[in-house]
User: Fold these one by one.
Assistant:
Number 1:
Amino acid sequence: MTTPAPYPIGTAGVPWGSAEVAAWLTKQTRHRSYEKDVLSVVDALRSHFDVVEYGRLDYAPNSYPLVAIKSRQWRDDLPCMLVTGGVHGYETSGVHGALRFAQQHASDYAGRINLVVAPCISPWAYERIHRWNPHAVDPNRSFREGSPAQESAALLRLVADWRDRVLMHIDLHETTDTDESEFRPALAARDGVAYEPDEVPDGFYLVDDSEKPQPAFQQAVIAAVAKVTHIAPADRNGQIIGSPVVAPGVIEYPLRKLGLCAGITPARYTTTTEVYPDSPKTSPEQCIAAQVAAVCAAIDFALAHA
């Protein structure tokens, strides 16, 4: 029998209430600056792109503008491509991969696509290097009508007018050692269930949509990333994080059913990236480069098969 991992907040087997959430919140510390790391980079792109403030998070005493980079020459006859990062604020290369792509490659697609890049969906969590928002809610299980997460609701409002025209959506994530040392034990404690340890995959992998899989698209992204960093192998059970590996470096989830970010549009081509920054085989810079390679490959494939 698996016993709950000890966690310093709450009572084993009992879901958290408001007191436990408040106790958890007092332990969250600001480690970095959203304004310095994200907003300043976005501001420098204003000469080439439109910058849209699509919402604001008011988490006293902090307030965070939510920003997206958008093609200046938006045309109704062009396919829409959506890039999102930082749904989980602690997943650093997702944020900086989205920004790096916007800085170095987005202009290459001018006149060919309508592009939207939302680089940091969860700025409060980015600053605190955390997975949840201050209400202990995971935004990446909350992309649905009546969302309990302001971060998720704001992104849904951003895409509402053009969601049905999105051809490709790539959502940039990481899987880290803290998934097992902190975040999954915290989740088990929050929900009052037993924590069951799992392996952290060593390498890059993708999550396809099990309800409308696109295996050729996923493999095109994997092939591009393999030139930058290593692809995660299956574990001894032929799985990655408890899901069967359907192709090298690819698993599947029902994205919309689970309320995941990559399921917010009916796009033909969708994927969630996962890279492992704690691996001795890679570096933070390689992880960012892998995210950029994934975005470019995803857009290129979607354009070629539109």
Note: The chain has eight helices and ten strands.
Number 2:
Amino acid sequence: MLPKRDSWAEPYKIKMVELLKMTTPEQRKKALTEAGYNTFLLKSEDVYIDLLTDSGTSAMSDEQWSGMMRGDEAYAGSKNYYNLENAVSEVYGYQYLVPTHQGRGAENILSQIMIKPGDIVPGNMYFTTTRLHQELSGGIFHDVIIDEAHDPESEYQFKGNIDLNKVEKLVQEYGVEKIPYICVAVTVNLAGGQPVSMQNLKELRKYTEEKGIKIMLDMTRIAENAYFIQQHEEGYRLKTIAEIVKEICSYTDGATFSGKKDALVNIGGFLALNDWDKFEEARNLVVVYEGLHTYGGLAGRDMEAMAIGIYESVQDAHMKARIGQVIYLGNKMKEFGIPIVKPIGGHGIFVDAKQFLPHISQDDFPAQTLAAEIYLDAGIRTMERGIVSAGRKATGENYYPKLELVRFTIPRRVYTQAHMDVIAESTARVYERRNDIKGLKMVYEPKYLRFFQAKFEKL
């Protein structure tokens, strides 16, 4: 009798390949030095396996490429806009759509129409661009995620959950009139791709309805969050990803969306709303910042590909394979004793740089250092998610996040299981020589979102 297995396999076959450049250690050292030890500043051609981000790096399907050929590039009223509008309504349930060039375009417009100077914006852990847009509009971000999210060793399944006691404390201190909305991310990127439970969303919705507070969703990886609910939350095992996604959205008042993640496209996003008056404000502003309200900075072909990708993203077989590949890499990392954020999240593996390099202080950028060392070993590009990403307070002081992580982000439908083996083995080699690794010092720091362009030198 065969053993019972629950293996994942890709629900597609490969029709085309892109050849990769193989580099020598000397070439990688030169490239990294020229990039100031910042993996964002490396040239793509110098990278073997690119795990910098899953944003805009996925492989599109034959249906999406076919859709690109059906692009209606009319300046106003493109048929692709209406196809996208129908997809958002059918899959997510929102009434009104404002397309944007990507997610941060939606964040900018949402912040401008909802936030006044001095407002308090609670959220389940900050995200870099989201918090910056809130701050540029005069808002003050407050983290209301549960404490388990800041503990990489905690095995709690839904570490993205909102702590309602923290929300109530803010309401008591500032009053509901100072809280324009609560920002809920699914999944939570900087916590390690950790999901939010449906029960937590239901409880938050009940609370906010009583208080008269809006819930705005960062739904960039909502299908991944739905998978974790399906697998781990009571009462959802027999529901489809599509059904769970729509239920998540039903407990919110609107959402920002980067189509470059779940929707499997290279560019695109939107702001979705249920309030007509806010929609009117948003579609007026999108003309100023992005483009006409029926294209929002996107070509018709990009809107068509995103509409198709939305439907593909909620297919159960696709999501099982997508998360399955991440879990496979995470388990390989654990076999080698590499400290990672637990439980394994949705869009990548997050290595705990504090545990990996305990001899390097946070002021010497351990996660930035580790990302550089991983590139040097085998040409694998990852990214820092720690003190560099956290940035500075208005006073000029550094934020010191509890989590100091290196993110191994897996693009969708791009790499094979063999690539995952190479990644784990390379990281294990770096782990073996961890005690010889020295930290970095920052020699250039831009004003905003420093992790994109900062430069470093070895200590």
Note: The chain has two domains: 25-54+316-458, 62-313.
Number 3:
Amino acid sequence: MKKAFKLDGLDCANCAAKLERAVAKIDDVSKASVNFMSSKLVLEAADDKFDSVVEQAKATIRKIEPGVVIKA
């Protein structure tokens, strides 16, 4: 499954790169990309693991950049 999420509060390209690297390392993530200009996270993972991956991504982002919020 592939889905895009809005990242509210993303305010620097370096932060976007850090988030992309961290989310890509989560188990079961096939691909993760963060576009700083559009403030979007595109996440790919297996359908049966997707909800779990999204929750892990939210926790990872909260830990690295507490001011950034994922919105569907």
Note: The chain has one domain: 2-71.
